[in-house]
Amino acid sequence: MDRLKLVLQYFQSNSESISNGICVILALISVKLYTSFDFNCPCIPQYNKLYALGVMFVPPVILFFLGVIINRHTGVMMEEWVRPIGKRTKNPAVVKYLCSAMMQRSLLAPMVWVLVTLLDGKCFICAFSMSVDPRHFTGIPNNTGMDLVRLMAKVPCKEDAVFHNSTFRKAVTRYVRCYSQAIGWSILLFLILLGAISRVVKPCFDHATFLQTRYWSNYLDIEQKLFDETCVLHAREFARKCVHQFFQSMQEDMQLRLQLPPPHCHPSHRDEECEDEDHLHGITRDEQVDRVLHTWYSCRPELDVTKTAHQPKVCITWEDHNGRTLFSDV
């Protein structure tokens, strides 16, 4: 249970961990879908290859686009790419880094599907059984009255009466499955070698540039999250303020009609109103909200927090009647 909590905390730590977790879940889903999928080759020369290649490559395309849709880096990358320059210049290296991260995560589930199909071999047998030369195998049925192309197309169908207890079909199936598994293991070995080489070679290049690119890509993600959270908080306070004003106006209307004494306002209510104003940041009208949102899109703030960092602080000091400092607070 503690290990499960640690795993959940890791995936909830940042958006990159969440994206990795989603990609792993998609890969597991692809494996589960393939194992639960009942593959039935049509055993017809015109449709064998089309059906088998469709099963092998159409689901990976769907999984790829699904990975692109649910990947957070996709939205951050597109917003950074299409936004107006304003006060902040665009960094093409950051966009390339986000695109690379998005592509790597989105390709995980499709590659798992292709590798599983190749290692299983059913699709490969259905697609390429007609390409095998039957003269290399013994025990070929001669009393079927079918040509060789139609006969080889029925190799994937072990329930067919033509190949009932036939060693020929088993030999051809084994032969094609060996090719399929060899291709699958070769692709897996190539991917592992490619990842290992990239890990080893990466520090040999300008590592400072890579660190800068990764920093600003993380900054864009965090900035967008904070902006969304601030907008949600402002919208909540704005809505609560509008509802409060509506009921207050209705209460005043009822007082004028029924001539009731005005209610006394508790000091704590004034403090709550001050806190609401702080959450609203002085933006109290719909025109102001629209202008702020348009300004955020068209003119992002420059990456300079010098004014905020050097903002003077107010120091409050309590002194006695002799001028001696009793307490000081910032």
Main beta-sheet annotation = 2 strands, antiparallel
As a percent range, the share of helical residues equals: 55-70%
Strand order of the largest sheet: 1-2
Model regions low in confidence, pLDDT < 50 over at least 5 residues? none
In sequence order, what are the helices and strands, one letter per element? HHHHHHHHHHHHHEE
Distance between the termini: 45 Å
Which class do the helix and strand fractions yield? mainly alpha
How many DSSP helices? 13
Q: Hey, roughly how much beta strand do the residues contain?
A: under 5%
Gyration radius (Cα, Å) is 34 Å
Q: Write down the overall geometry.
A: elongated
What does this structure look like?
There is one protein chain. This protein has 330 residues and is mainly alpha-helical. It has 13 helices and 2 strands. The chain has helices spanning 2-11, 15-36, 48-70, 72-82, 92-106, 108-120, 122-128, 148-153, 167-201, 207-258, 267-280, 286-298, 306-309, and strands at residues 316-319, 325-329. Strands 1-2 form a two-stranded antiparallel sheet. The longest helix is centred in the last third of the chain and has 52 residues, at 207-258. The protein is elongated. The chain starts with a helix and ends with a strand. The mean pLDDT is 81.
Briefly say what this structure is:
Helices cover 68% and strands 3% of the residues. With 330 residues, the protein is mainly alpha-helical.
